Amino acid sequence: MTTIRDRFCPKCGRPAETDGLCMICRAAETPWAACDTRVARTHCPSCGATKQVNTWTDTEREQAEIAPDLARSAVHFHPNVKKRSIAVEVRDISPNRSRAYLTITGTLYGLSMEKTCTVELVWHKEQCDRCNRITGSYYEGIVQVRADQRDLSPFELQSAAAIATQIEESLIAGGERLSFISDMTESRDGLDITVGSQHIGLLIVQGITAQFGGRYTTHPKLVGEKNGRQLFRITYLVRLPRYQRHDVVRLGRVYAEVEQVDSRHVRVFDLSEGRSRSIKEDEILRRIGNARNAQPAFVAYIAGGMMGILDPETGVTKEYPKKPWQTIVAGENVQVLRDGDILVVMR
Ligand SMILES: [Zn+2]
Ligand SMILES: [Zn+2]
User: Fold this and answer.
1) Tell me, what DSSP letter sits at residue 66?
2) pLDDT mean over 6-18
3) Which residues of 287-303 are buried (b: 16+ CB within 10 A; e: fewer)?
4) 54 Cα to the center of ligand 2, angstroms
């Protein structure tokens, strides 16, 4: 006589913990892990980006690093499987094929399970959206960097190019794959930067004018239609200010060194009065040079508010009034720029 109702497995006849199959038979009947026989991955042969569904993503990972994860993605576990683990060994068969040998383990209803399977890894190559646009010479804009009534200085050229490259790197790192620079050319007029999106074009002109002052204008041009949408190309024209920092200019009867330029005003250091002040650009008569290109000249004497400076080119000593703000010592050199016959002493 039993007080507990005995339960037996209908399949193997062993005592069962619950109604129906015992744990062993249940585990044996459950498809606890299944493997797809092949998985594919698409990558760009030019830049290595990978495609998932229809989205390209940049990656630094090599095929050998990706292969085990790709193989693991072929395994589908029953939700009740615990302590899942997959060991993978990959063998390359051809440039387009690899074979992965998987040992899959886990526990189901307290029982340890193990199985092996083989997964074929297929490596598709396809040119990504970005490389496709670059090789197809697709672009959405050109940034033209110019200076107002003068050439760009080598420093401005280099800095503008560096600003553009930095903006490109940060946009690409942020996932804006099509915000690329496809070309950067120095021309006689300045710098031309061909860009893949209007967004990067705008950021570049803003970055350059933030650094150097000046202004930009945008000139859209309709170039066609794609999928019912009008296609524009934009020329962004950047004009750097006519005067640069450290330019030495003539204002009326005095000379001044440019300290800062914005769109309306120029801040100068007046070399006569020895102080900074703000002027309008049209007060400048002309530019005589840049203080960075000044050369040394010998101060022969200082006497009675005058100083004698030896002209380094002619060897003749000329007399100039010594301004009260100037700390100049006889017997030493000062830095000068030449304006015709006149030597202009820098600060
Ligand atoms: Zn059983
Ligand atoms: Zn690519």
Assistant:
1) H
2) 83
3) bbbbbeebeebebeeee
4) 14
